[in-house]
UniProtKB/TrEMBL annotation:
GO terms for molecular function: ATP binding; carbamoyl-phosphate synthase (glutamine-hydrolyzing) activity. Residues 1-167 are annotated as: CPSase. It catalyses: L-glutamine + H2O = L-glutamate + NH4(+); hydrogencarbonate + L-glutamine + 2 ATP + H2O = carbamoyl phosphate + L-glutamate + 2 ADP + phosphate + 2 H(+). Residues 2-122 form the Carbamoyl-phosphate synthase small subunit N-terminal domain. InterPro entries: Anth_synth/Amidotransfase (IPR050472), CarbamoylP_synth_ssu (IPR006274), CarbamoylP_synth_ssu_N (IPR002474), CarbP_synth_ssu_N_sf (IPR036480), Class_I_gatase-like (IPR029062), CPSase_GATase1 (IPR035686), GATASE (IPR017926). This is Carbamoyl phosphate synthase small chain. GO terms for biological process: 'de novo' UMP biosynthetic process; L-arginine biosynthetic process. L-glutamine binds at S45, G216, G218, L244, Q247, N285, G287, Y288. SMART domains: CPSase_sm_chain. CDD domains: GATase1_CPSase (cd01744). Signal peptide: none annotated. Belongs to the CarA family. Composed of two chains; the small (or glutamine) chain promotes the hydrolysis of glutamine to ammonia, which is used by the large (or ammonia) chain to synthesize carbamoyl phosphate. Tetramer of heterodimers (alpha,beta)4.
């Protein structure tokens, strides 16, 4: 039975089955990850997006809090070919509409051809096509969510591993995945998670050995304050960044980011290290990319598929960033050593 409607740009309607009721809207994107739905659904970088899973069965090993990357579901809506009752109930409990029994392969192909697009969903016994179209009508582009950081950052500074006697990390939390903090704490770092709009003096007061800019949702150009902190401290404090963090660092140091057609989201994105010529498999979730790194940053790693920058550094300024997610979760652990490199840089 079809009791859900998805309206996509061009006012096309796709019918589906409601698994979690409600109306919603967002940027329609897809991930090719074949595992890790709990981690993806709790990744703050998906805020304001509708997430389509290309893998056809979502929920086949249950739902466990231990695997969450944050304390709530972040995509505004979820699309799958087939979703288990566990996942459907979890999403309903979080008021995140979800649909299945639709041709997700068709949606993925369309996004690949047309690029990420705006969409609206209406799901449930009373849902109508008009409701889905009304949601689509209200949907705005990712870049117009100018204060998206406020939706995902910590409200107050928070200390992780206060008694550690390793590296002191000031983490600008632009929507950080829990595994980034865990990966640093596993190396005995003390992590001061700071709000995304922390001031230069807020950062300095933590006496950091390294300033770390986290992943996060939306357009990196909307994280202006984080950029100002980076510009003020570059050269004085070593700098690291993951995903949105790489983009913010590049923009702050004279580079430029741009929106990609449909982005990279999955757990098998190949990345070549230009110095060692080694290729590693990486976890990714981004829709923007560094189009120009500026003249302060070297491109050290590139995506094998499209040559976009995956790693940037500057040895004398002590900067190292990654576009992909070295903390994995979900995905391969090929790049966990990034955290060793960050700690080594901070201790230099
Ligand atoms: N995972 C992230 O940090 C995503 C970064 C940014 N929001 C993008 O889509 O490119």
């Amino acid at each position: 039975m079809n009791d859900a409607y998805i309206a996509v740009e061009g006012d096309r309607i796709i019918e589906a089955r409601a698994r979690s009721q409600g109306t919603t809207r967002g940027e329609l994107v897809f991930t090719t990850a074949y595992t890790g739905y709990e981690e993806s659904l709790t990744d703050p970088s998906y805020e304001e997006q509708l997430l389509t899973f290309s893998y056809p069965l979502i929920g086949n090993y249950g739902v466990r809090k231990e695997r969450f990357e944050s304390d709530r579901v972040h995509p505004r809506g979820v699309l799958a070919r087939e979703m288990t009752e566990d996942v459907a109930q979890w999403l309903q409990s979080q008021d995140v509409p979800a649909v299945d029994h639709l041709d997700t392969r068709d949606i993925v192909t369309e996004i690949r051809d047309e690029g990420a697009m705006k969409a609206g969903i209406a799901a449930g016994p009373d849902a109508t096509e008009a409701d889905a179209l009304a949601e689509l009508d209200e949907c705005s582009h990712m870049s117009s969510h100018t204060d998206i950081g406020a939706q995902v950052s910590v409200d107050e500074p928070t200390i992780h591993n206060p008694d550690g006697d390793g590296t002191r990390v000031a983490l600008l939390d632009c929507g950080a995945k829990g595994s980034i903090i865990d990966s640093l704490v596993a190396r005995d770092a003390t992590v001061h998670s700071l709000p995304y709009d922390a001031s230069v003096s807020d950062v300095e007061s933590t006496e950091p050995d390294v300033l770390f800019v986290s992943n996060g949702p939306g357009d990196p150009e909307n994280f202006e304050q984080a950029g100002e902190v980076v510009s003020a401290l570059v050269g004085d404090v070593p700098l690291a960044g993951i995903c949105l963090g790489q983009q913010v660092v590049a923009n702050a140091l004279g580079g430029r980011t741009e929106k990609m057609e449909f982005g990279h989201r999955g757990v098998n994105q190949p990345v070549r290290d230009l110095r060692s010529d080694q290729v590693i498999m990486t976890t990714q979730n981004h829709g923007y990319t560094v189009a120009d790194p500026g003249d302060k940053l070297n491109v050290t790693q590139v995506n094998v598929n499209d040559e976009t920058p995956e790693g940037l550094d500057n040895d004398s300024l002590n900067i190292i960033t990654r576009q992909y997610h070295p903390e994995a979760n979900p995905g391969p652990n090929d790049s966990l050593s990034f955290f060793d490199d960050v700690v080594a840089m901070a201790e230099k």
